[in-house]
Predict the 3D structure of the following.
Amino acid sequence: MATKKVVIIGSGPAAYTAAVYSARAMLEPVLFEGFMSGTAGGQLMSTTDVENYPGFPESVTGPELMDRMQRQAKRFGTTILAEDVQSINCSMRPFKVTGSSTEVFAHSVIIATGAMARRLDIKGARDGEFWQKGVSACAVCDGAIPIFRNKDLYIIGGGDSAMEEALYLTRYASRVFIVHRRDALRASKIMADRALHHPKITVLWDSVVEEVSGDKVVTSVSIKHLKSGEVSVHPAGGLFFAVGHEPNTTFLQGQLALDANGYIQVVPGTCRTSVVGIYAAGDVQDHVYRQAITAAGSGCMAALEIERELSALESQKV
Ligand code: NDP
């Protein structure tokens, strides 16, 4: 493949918006959408109704929104590769982007690989224990499977994800318990109110899950009240983590400046990273807003920044 002007890595709102803008600017983008990583389409693929993306007054499902964005990117000529990127060589320009089966050289790269749901290291919840046998980090992806039907389900976290996922689980569970380590929620008031007023939802304040037990699947959880120190065992059909996210930056192998939590550092107000020609957009560089609309906005910014850089280089040649 000849050297491309732009390679985009990712397939969430940031990546597809960057693709739409760069394709319409005739930059002929190549987009690696991911495959084995299971992240194609990004986090919205595991979201039900998206009520806060402008232009959809009746709401839209996450997968439908992503499908629309992908079609829009394709319509203007984006080449989409269903491959994971394994590495980027940032020490040369054009940069070498190595996918699972394709190698592409690119003048500019936009990294929009997003973030993944975090898990806690709890006895019984690890790989080879009850992980994926009643323990999950995505209620919206897994909540509908039969093992969770008409059971008491537990969800850890006090943010918007915990509220959203607890509400989602009420469709299947007999009761839902939110286990939160503090006595106040981090969630927005509207989401917190919906959860707190739901008849099937109870919040266990100042509490942590100490252990998950079961036979073939989860059957109980041990919960410690942090103020009294009391530990109690509760029948449970499932445990869900909703404790935030990890940015997908491991494949960068330390070549770009990251913050203490692994998010890519960008020059404030831009998508420029510590390497000239490499840009970052969406949740991989944003631990503050983390919304589909802000991710889309930053994807647009990255594409415009590249377009301007390339135009400036062209005019220097003339
Ligand atoms: P947040 O970081 O907002 O919340 C994570 C929660 O997990 C916090 O309550 C935190 O507790 C808890 N937590 C973290 N680590 C631990 C631990 N080791 N043990 C126990 N609890 C822990 O993440 P979210 O995924 O909820 O939300 C991320 C962003 O996405 C937010 O900006 C949110 O507004 C947004 N969002 C919006 C939605 C919507 O509008 N529909 C839906 C989902 C998310 P503590 O509070 O004590 O720190």
Residues 85 and 99 are 4 Å apart (CA to CA).
